[in-house]
Each structure stands twice: as C-alpha cells, then as structure tokens.
Write a structure and sequence with these properties.
199 residues, mainly alpha, 6% strand, CASP-like protein 2B1, transmembrane, membrane, CASP/CASPL
Amino acid sequence: MSYLGVGLSPVNVAGTKMKLMDRKVRLTELILRCSVCALALVAAILIATDTQVKEIFTIQKKAKYTDMKALVFLVVVNGIAAAYSLLHMVRCVVGMMKGSVLFSKPLAWAIFSGDQAIAYLTVAGVAAAAQSAAFAKLGEPELQWMKICTIYGKFCNQVGEGIATALLASIGMVLISSISAFALFRLYGGNKAQQGSRW
C-alpha cells in the first residue's frame, strides 16, 4: 500500500508482469528471426557459390552444388527460410512499434503453422545434405562409391561450412516455432481463466 492510501491490486501487478514477459518474448522472437534470416542466407550463399575444378586424366571436371540434389534442396530451403524470416521480422518490428499483442487466433494459427513448416523443411534439408556429405566424405565401398572429398577438398570444406550454418538456422527455426506455439496456446489458456472468473 502506498502513502496515499492507494494500493496496487494483484491484477495490475500480474498485468504488468505479463506485459514485461510479452515484451521479452517478442524481443527474443525478433532476435531469433534476424539470426535465422542471416544464417540461412549465409548458408545458401556458401553452398550456391561453391565450385572447384579438378583435372582428372586430362579431363576437367567442375564440382558444383547442382551435382548433388540434396544440396540444391538445402539451398532452396534456406532461401525460403531467409525470406520467411525477413517477412516475420517486419511483422515483429511493426508489432513492437505499435505495442500490439497477438490476440487473433486465426493469425496465431497461421504463424504457428508457417513456423512449423519452415522448421520441418530446414531440418529435412540439413539431414539430407548431411547424409550426402557423409557419402562424399566417407564413400560407400559396398556400392563402389569413391570418396569424393579426397579429390574436391575445398569444395567439401565449403559445403561443410554451409551445412553447419544451415544447422544453426534450423535450430533457430525450431526455437521460433516453440515461441509461436507458446503465443498460440496462451490464447486458449487465458480464456479459461476469464470464463472461470465470471462464475
């Protein structure tokens, strides 16, 4: 209670804590979306610009990312993830500037579904590229597949860097999808509390 005889009600304190928590969650989401956008873009550029030319028995062979379909898929997925994150960065910034909170269930479902889809795509892209990279690095003696990375060392190293960067972007998307799940399902939890207070 203050000296003026006016106290703080528990509802006001809880509301202030919720606003502070909501601000922190939105800031975390914005930072994660910026990180995912940058990491996905770097991963796509690292892999898409990677080439190496080797001469094998007087024949020049150029290794490029389009030679492995898993790398093409990874570049496309990272491009999509970067564009998607950029769009949602704008949404986050506008929401923070307006001070608005997401109360629309259909919009929350759309954001949650989009985040889930992009998270699954990035995880699938990293998994496929990692499997192809393992074959390139280790070969497959039973199928008489040779170790490509012994020939194209620079190419394999840059692809490895791209896959590692894509893995970080993928982890970021999984975290973002967790935040969007929190934002969605808290809309359902608050209604029960409000309905219970009416009785």
